[in-house]
Design brief:
The relative contact order is 0.07. The chain has 139 residues and is mainly α. It folds into three domains: 54 residues, no CATH class; 45 residues; 34 residues. It starts with 16 loop residues before the first strand and ends with a helix. The longest helix has 20 residues. The model has no long low-confidence stretch (mean pLDDT 81). The protein has a two-stranded antiparallel ribbon. The protein is built from six helices and two strands.
Length: 139
């Protein structure tokens, strides 16, 4: 079964539920229904909720276990029985899927920025070229 979409795929507007159907007894109820707890949140909170709504079931279970273990990967390692590198990779994927840049990618971008500034200082590139490279390296 498909998950309930939280926003219009065309304009990003809020969707309302107009029909509910029971597959067991084949009853259909029509009307205008709130899409659940989304109605309880302020408009500026909805983009955050939409990020979480895009996660699949496995990612949500991982996130739940991560929070239960207070973000400590060594405890998570014991709880779900995966190696540290696997957990780190899953966490990085989760961070990326939520629309953020994982820590290691941020660090590699910072190294690139320092190199651009060093090249500018040594005269290898112009100020215009350095500005362009720095703009492109932003997440």
């Amino acid at each position: 079964m498909n998950r309930l979409p939280t926003s219009c795929p065309f304009c990003e507007g809020e969707l309302s539920v107009e029909s509910l159907h029971c597959r067991q007894c084949d009853t259909t109820i029509t009307g205008h229904f709130s899409p659940g707890p989304l109605g309880e949140f302020e408009e500026d909170q909805l983009p955050v909720l939409r990020r979480f709504a895009r996660l699949n079931a496995e990612q949500l279970r991982f996130l739940e276990a991560f929070v239960r273990c207070e973000g400590k990967l060594n405890r998570l390692q014991e709880e779900i029985g995966l190696s540290y590198p696997t957990l780190r990779s899953r966490l990085d994927d989760l961070v990326r899927d939520l629309g953020f840049t994982p820590r290691e990618e941020e660090q590699s971008q910072a190294v690139d920025r320092r190199q651009v500034l060093a090249d500018l200082q040594s005269g290898k590139i112009s100020a215009t070229e350095a500005a362009r490279l720095l703009r492109e390296s932003r997440p």
